[in-house]
Amino acid sequence: MNILMRKNAYYPSYIKMFNDLGGGKPLNPVILLFDNELQNKNKPLSKICNHINLSDNDKDILKLNLNLYLTENLYLLTHQLVGESKENELEDLFKDKNFIKNNR
What we know:
With about 100 residues, the protein is of the alpha+beta class. Helices cover about 30% and strands about 10% of the residues.
């Protein structure tokens, strides 16, 4: 079952509504990429997971696979953790810290 098609009393299923109006499925994937900060409740990845009511099982799948199919063409992605870290930003994956500094 895709995650976002679950009934939510707070907002309508826009995906279903657009599919009904448009008569077809989206052609291209939409990828939501977040820093791997699932353990920190104040960070965006944790907040989006809670907002869309991800189950503990879905969060475990995200931790293991670093991606999760949400619905239709929508995917949630994060990146691997560095070393023994419990959370990392994408920039932490670059060995050359000057690369980030010089390319902002």
